[in-house]
Write a structure and sequence with these properties.
The chain contains 19 helices and 32 strands. With 759 residues, the chain is of the alpha/beta class. A hairpin with a 2-residue loop joins strand 30 and strand 31. The termini are far apart.
């Protein structure tokens, strides 16, 4: 028997396609109900104490149950994907229909099952019959564009509440991967290109989700910046560059939101799979940052038993997406034979228990109480998020729409039916169903179907203007041009659908660029409304009078767009990413990899830009973007004054006054950028040091103080694992965007050294 076990372990260790003949331990029959009085249920005790009490009571098989997760949708869905075919998979009967995953608990000890749902914009359903109809937030990119901590928290709290009332206690949210590659099909799920902005906004959303006493993840750890060859590509980057960019974003998100789980990514990092990277999981996350929660794999990202467990993976997720049930029978044998130490298995269980206890998920059972969801109140939350994230990129006076306009022609983008959403595992199906499902758009299988939310901008505009609002689908360009002639204003909707597993060109779908160009030639009073996953090129930009970036605006996106266009709401979004003017401005003008190959081991060199991502790259190379990071216009004007700096204990604070100098109540986003002396060794000329979002009435002023985290003033030293601030003069800029500084000052800082956590 010993020989059999060693052979089995060798197979699992190498990651071969192996399914143990030992029955999956996670599917063992439930034990007796928990006793009524148990010390670990005493909520007066801290989480660590309760977890240790629990752990002492657990059997080996009970610990193993916690570390193995099942996919919770049926085999026909897997076969429809095309990349996981031929499996007659039946999820556990205790799981919820069309959900992401399920992990058995231990009823004997009161440890709850884990019911897992995608994703960061709401409670998602997998492709299939009878999806859940839930409230969808705007895309992660749109929420990042709000630059609004409060809106991010409220949005997270809303979708977390819907998750709880739908019977889920784990939400696979918190996408914080930085936009190194603007063609990445999942950029819409993430928080932009800057580690501070992305980390804080996503962290606030995580904090909101977990306020419902459920678990949120933060993902995808780390450097998961493109979908092409996502299962095999290696993201290659130095420790220093990573600590000052992508890893810093995760660090900020974890400090802000305290997520109970980290989801490791599909890709390799420096040629080691992210989910078996000792460097990422043990060294950086658990040791350096002191992270107490657990690491779960992405669905299909586990490749072994022994290497993965010893490298810090705590829970295999979504079997049978992986080629083997590595953390079921094979892990038990690995522990029995000493290839994985007993202490390591205990630590895996301890971390999962800590996540359940610390969030309150352990003590607060999740009901299935869909009738308690207040969809009307939740619609107001997502509408506010959409309005806060809409960015007015250009305006020559066409917006807000004139009340004297008699005829408004709206063209394209299915604006008479609804607003578009991004595809893949994060897909939320909205109340009212998909109004474009019969139009033959997009793929039928994953990452489709292409889905709209039934909140049409055309109807919302009709309700808010006295003008005659006429819609034309734009399919026939000549007919659209004819319709545009003579209109007081023309509004052209351009869309770009992106989704998980595919990368996208930086252009609009369905020949929209040619449509916009032709319409703008026919009528100079043309407004363009974009619904995109991220940046796109705009070959027609000089010909149009106004451009609005609405992203994927969620359940009430049509209403939000109409309110901004008509001036009910002044636009207040700011770009969380740089819009490049051409491909040759990118660090990698040609996307690495081959989308036609699932096995190519692509090498992606992120040391080309290192920590100089986005606006930092444009600064470093002296490039002029199409639109700068932080850019956004309003219907009012704002003045800045009294820029001052101060230091207390060598911590830098920046204060200034913002005044609404216009005639309309509006919100502004003053941004603070910092630049270091040459001796500091920065890879980029400047960094975002902080910001605030300020709502002001006409003539009103407010004094703002921004504290600059010392890590944003420092260089990371990999040898000593310290953040080092060089002595010298630092420039401080108060700006409207990364390229529009209003005033500057300087401050002299002493040399300072901070530990790996910035303390």
């Amino acid at each position: 028997m010993r020989t059999f076990k060693l052979s089995l372990l060798a197979t699992a260790a190498l990651g071969f396609a192996f399914v143990s003949t030992v029955p999956a331990l996670a599917q063992a029959p439930a034990a007796a109900e928990a006793p009524k009085a148990t010390p670990w249920t005493d909520t007066r005790l801290d989480a660590d104490t309760r977890v240790e009490l629990l752990l002492k009571e657990m059997t080996q098989d009970e610990k193993l149950k916690l570390v193995f997760g099942h996919f919770a949708s049926a085999g026909d869905w897997l076969n429809a994907r095309g990349d996981i075919a031929g499996l007659n998979w039946k999820p556990p009967v205790e799981s919820h229909h069309q959900s992401a995953g399920f992990v058995f608990g231990v009823p004997r000890l009161g440890i709850p099952n884990q019911w897992q749902t995608d994703a960061g914009v709401g409670v998602a359903s997998q492709v299939g019959d009878k999806p859940r109809l839930r409230t969808a937030l705007p895309s992660g990119m749109a929420t990042a564009a709000t630059w609004d901590r409060d809106l991010a928290f409220k949005g997270g709290a809303m979708i977390g509440r819907e998750a709880r009332l739908s019977g889920f206690n784990v939400q696979l949210a918190g996408g914080v991967n930085l936009m190194r590659e603007p063609r990445n099909g999942r950029n819409f799920e993430y928080g932009g290109e800057d580690p501070l902005l992305a980390g804080v906004i996503v962290g606030e959303q995580i904090r909101g989700i977990q306020s419902n006493k459920i678990i949120s993840t933060v993902k995808h750890y780390a450097y998961n910046a493109q979908e092409t060859n996502r299962f095999t590509a290696s993201s290659n980057i130095s420790d220093k560059a990573g600590r000052e960019s992508d890893l810093l974003a995760f660090q900020f998100a974890i400090e802000t939101g305290n997520p109970a789980s980290v989801m490791c990514a599909y890709n390799r990092v420096n040629n080691v799979y992210a989910c078996e990277s000792d460097y990422l999981l043990n060294e950086v996350l658990k040791k350096d940052w002191g992270y107490k929660g657990y690491v779960m794999s992405d669905w299909g990202a586990t490749h072994s038993t022994i290497p993965a467990a010893n490298a810090g993976l705590d829970q295999q997720s979504g079997y049978p997406f992986d080629k083997g049930n590595y953390f079921a029978g094979p892990l038990k044998e690995a522990v029995e034979n000493g290839f994985v130490k007993q202490e390591r298995l205990d630590d895996m269980a301890r971390r999962i228990l800590w996540g359940l206890v610390s969030t309150g998920a352990f003590d607060t059972p999740v009901p299935v109480a869909e009738d308690q969801i207040d969809f009307k109140a939740h619609a107001a939350v997502t509408q506010a998020d959409a309005e806060g994230g809409i960015v007015l990129l250009k305006n020559t006076g066409l917006l807000p729409l004139a009340t004297t306009a008699k005829k408004i022609v709206v063209i394209g983008g299915y604006a008479d039916k609804g607003v578009i959403s991004g595809g893949g595992s994060s897909q939320v199906y909205g109340q009212g169903g998909n109004p474009v499902k019969d139009l033959g758009l997009g793929p039928k299988a994953f990452p489709g179907p292409l889905t709209y939310y039934p909140d049409p901008p055309v109807e919302a505009l009709k309700a808010r203007t006295r003008a005659d609002v006429v819609y034309h689908d734009g399919k026939d360009v000549k007919a659209a041009v004819k319709a545009a002639k003579g209109a007081d204003v023309v509004i052209v909707f351009g869309t770009q659908w992106t989704g998980e597993s595919i990368d996208a060109e930086l252009k609009l779908d369905e020949n929209a660029d040619a449509l916009i160009d032709a319409v703008a030639k026919a009528n100079k009073k043309t407004v363009v409304v974009l619904q995109t996953g991220g940046p796109v090129f705009m070959p027609w930009l000089s010909k149009v009078g106004a451009v609005v970036e609405a992203w994927y605006p969620g359940t009430k996106g049509g209403t939000a767009i109409a309110r901004v266009l008509t001036g009910e709401v002044s636009p207040s979004g700011r770009l969380p990413v740089t819009f490049a003017a051409s491909l040759d401005q990118l660090p990698r003008p040609k996307l690495d990899g081959d989308p036609k190959s699932d096995t190519i081991r692509t090498q992606v060199n992120y040391d080309i830009e290192g920590a100089a991502i986005g606006y930092k790259w444009f600064d470093k190379k002296g490039l002029k973007p199409l639109f700068a990071f932080g850019h956004g216009l309003t219907y009012s004007t704002f003045g800045y004054s009294d820029l001052k700096t101060s230091t207390a204990g060598d911590r830098l604070s920046v204060s200034f006054t913002v005044t609404n100098t216009g005639k309309v109540a509006a919100s502004d986003v003053p941004q603070v950028y910092v630049s270091a002396p040459a001796s500091a060794g920065w890879e980029a000329p400047k960094r975002l040091g902080g910001w605030d979002k300020v709502a002001l009435k006409p003539g009103e002023s407010k004094t703002v103080t921004v504290a600059v985290d010392p890590r944003l003033l420092a260089s990371f030293d990999s040898a000593s694992k310290t953040w080092n601030v060089a002595a010298g003069a630092y420039d401080v800029s108060l700006a409207r965007s990364a390229t529009d500084a209003v005033s500057k000052t300087s401050v002299t800082l002493n040399a300072q050294k901070y530990d790996v956590r910035g303390k």
